[in-house]
Amino acid sequence: MSAVRSVLKNNIRNAEIDEFLEVEVGKAGYAGADIQKTPLGARITLFVTRPGLVIGRRGVGIRDLTERLGQNFDLTNPQLSVMEVEVPELDPRIMAQKIVATVSRGTAFRRAAVWTLNSIMAAGALGAEIAVAGKLRSERSRFEKHRAGILPKSGDAAEKTVRTATVMVQLKMGLYGIKVKIAIRDALPSELEILYEKKENAEDQKSEINAIAEDQKSEINAIAEDQGS
User: Alpha-carbon distance 163 to 15, whole Å?
Assistant: First the structure.
């Protein structure tokens, strides 16, 4: 087997494993998996928000999941470990799944997107964007985007700071596509961080100038009323 075919085969298998894990441990807040091939076998690290649901009582859940992974995907000596996601609000896949769960219960997609966007920004994100596409209000497909903060769109800054996830959900109106982008503040390059601070300072100065102008305007109006009386 050539090197190209070997890489493609591994990538396809990893995608199948990811889909399998999303179904099996989705209720535990599945955020993804890191799959590595070692001389001793396959090493898989799961990232979830509730590790207890995956591990199970006395480790029964994780042992059963390890056995099924080995059987279904022909993995040699699979080693499974579970890591907890410390800040779920900064993980786009978890947030997209949260929107899916919310709209599946009957909540309007716009309200679910706004709630999720507010929780992302409250967790300390630099910026975020949520796009919902599908038959939202009628038979004609369209999309809506909700944005907040600063979200680099291209270049090195976007590659380093922005995390993206897309999730599909089947509803009565049809298939919805939910795409979440989150810009991580800690991954921001120093140059952009300086520009961001300058922008914040400029906005603060603008607010102060507007407040001073309003006070002066009020004083002028008061003097004019006194002179008129």
Answer: 18
